């Protein structure tokens, strides 16, 4: 092998070594870049992000807000009556049953009139006897008056005759009065409806002997119902006659009924010190019944264009009231001042928010201020406003 060949092989070896070194350095550099990318990606993935559904958020907007006072109670008929026997005797007929409608003056029951008629006959006989006695007393007085005028009898003797006449007149008046009462009893033997309504109870049956003032039939008028509710002393000053009240009744789902305050009890209830108020409800359709439980709210005042948020969005901690808002993609805690809730579960924001703010509407647990917020699911601005 000549010198030229050995030099060529040595050059090729050196070139191979240089290429190998370059390739190794490149591999190390690429691996360092990949590690840097992986570290950056890991660091990026480690940043906390809070995800919200659209229904978790609420956009603050001016709304009409009704300030209300929650009230509960039972519905009772405004007019109800228990028809009682006005005379004693055997009940010969009861013409109505529970649930039947009756008109004012309609026959409800009838008591055997035999005893009543006997009393009327006795009183008529007393009147006849009193009249006969009066006729005799008057005739005797006239005769004695003629003798007195001729001085055949003394004034004292005549005064005695006059007294007997006066007694006869009084007895006749008393007998007439008793006859009037007895004849009225004939009408009392027939029981009629005092007003139009529905029979709620039949308390006696034909064939029973009823005493004076015995209960026979109960009637209720369901065209107007009354709701009695208790108001705490702290709120009674805001209640006025004529204020409207909306309420719901068990069995009617989300349907609302309306009434108005007609009376306020002037005295507080012993023990609770609460004040009873009475709301009257028009029930001409006859849907509601007495004894149903009602839960509603009395409208105290109305605020137009008030910033209102769901009460569920407001939190309280260490004496501070706040909400969680989403601003610039981050969660921020905002202190707020709120008023009383309305019937829809919203509260008026008096300070701390402006129109257009987006807040977390429900309690999702403790949220970290400054954490990134991301909205997942379909985005609907209308849903966030509800």
Structure, described:
With 386 residues, the chain is α+β, with helices and mostly antiparallel strands. It folds into 4 domains: 1-43; 51-65 and 304-385, conserved putative lor/sdh protein from methanococcus maripaludis s2 fold (Beta Barrel), CATH 2.40.420.20; 71-76 and 220-303, Efflux pump adaptor protein, beta barrel domain (Elongation Factor Tu (Ef-tu), domain 3, Beta Barrel); 83-199, Helix hairpin bin (Helix Hairpins, Orthogonal Bundle), CATH 1.10.287.470. The protein contains 5 helices and 21 strands. Strands 3-10-13-12-11-14 form a 6-stranded antiparallel barrel. Strands 7-6-4-9 form a 4-stranded antiparallel sheet. Strands 15-16-17 form a 3-stranded antiparallel sheet, with no helix packed on it. α2 (114-149) packs antiparallel against α3. The protein is elongated, with a radius of gyration of 48 Å.
Q: What keywords describe this structure?
A:
six-stranded antiparallel barrel, 4 domains, alpha+beta, conserved putative lor/sdh protein from methanococcus maripaludis s2 fold, 5 helices, 386 residues, 32% helix, single chain, four-stranded antiparallel beta sheet, Elongation Factor Tu (Ef-tu), domain 3
The CATH topology of the largest domain corresponds to Helix Hairpins
Strand content: 35-45%
Query: Which sequence of strands runs across the widest sheet?
Result: 3-10-13-12-11-14
Number of domains: 4
Uncertain runs with pLDDT below 50, 5 residues or more? 39-46
Query: Rg, please?
Result: 48 Å
CATH superfamily of the largest domain: Helix hairpin bin
Structural class: alpha+beta
Beginning-to-end CA distance, first to last residue: 95 Å
**CATH-scheme architecture of the largest domain:** Orthogonal Bundle
**Rough outline:** elongated
Report the total helices.
Answer: 5
Name the CATH class of the largest domain.
Mainly Alpha
Per DSSP E runs of 2 or more residues, the count of β-strands stands at 21
């Amino acid at each position: 092998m000549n010198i030229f060949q050995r030099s060529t092989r040595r050059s090729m070896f050196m070139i191979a070594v240089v290429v190998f070194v370059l390739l190794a350095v490149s591999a190390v550099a690429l691996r360092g870049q990949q590690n840097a990318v992986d570290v950056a990606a890991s660091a990026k993935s480690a940043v906390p992000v809070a995800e919200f559904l659209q229904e978790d958020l609420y956009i603050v907007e001016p709304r009409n807000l009704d300030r209300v006072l929650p009230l509960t109670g039972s519905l009772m008929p405004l007019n109800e009556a228990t028809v009682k026997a006005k005379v004693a005797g055997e009940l010969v007929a009861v013409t109505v049953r529970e649930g039947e409608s009756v008109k004012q003056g309609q026959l409800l029951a009838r008591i055997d009139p035999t005893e009543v008629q006997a009393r009327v006959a006795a009183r008529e006989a007393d009147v006849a006897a009193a009249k006969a006695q009066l006729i005799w007393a008057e005739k005797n007085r006239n005769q004695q008056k003629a003798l007195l005028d001729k001085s055949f009898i003394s004034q004292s003797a005549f005064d005695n005759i006059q007294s007997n006449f006066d007694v006869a007149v009084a007895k006749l008046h008393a007998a007439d009065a008793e006859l009037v009462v007895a004849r009225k009893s004939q009408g009392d033997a027939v029981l009629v409806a005092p007003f139009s309504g529905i029979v709620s109870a039949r308390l006696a049956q034909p064939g029973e002997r009823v005493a004076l003032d015995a209960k026979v039939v109960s009637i209720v008028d369901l065209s107007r119902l009354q709701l009695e509710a208790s108001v705490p002393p702290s709120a009674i000053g805001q209640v006025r006659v004529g204020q409207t009240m909306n309420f719901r009744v068990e069995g009617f789902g989300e349907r609302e009924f309306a009434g108005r305050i007609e009376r306020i009890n002037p005295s507080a209830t012993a023990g609770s010190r609460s004040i009873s108020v009475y709301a009257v409800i028009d029930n001409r359709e006859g849907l509601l019944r007495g004894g149903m439980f009602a839960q509603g709210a009395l409208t105290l005042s109305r605020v137009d264009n008030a910033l209102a948020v769901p009460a569920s969005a407001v939190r309280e901690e260490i004496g501070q009231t706040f909400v969680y808002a989403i601003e610039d993609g981050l969660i921020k805690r905002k202190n707020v001042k709120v008023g009383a809730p309305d019937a829809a579960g919203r509260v008026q924001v008096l300070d701390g928010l402006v129109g257009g703010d987006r807040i977390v509407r429900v309690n999702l647990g403790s949220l970290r201020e400054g954490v990134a917020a991301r909205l997942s699911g379909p985005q609907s601005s209308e849903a966030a406003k509800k």
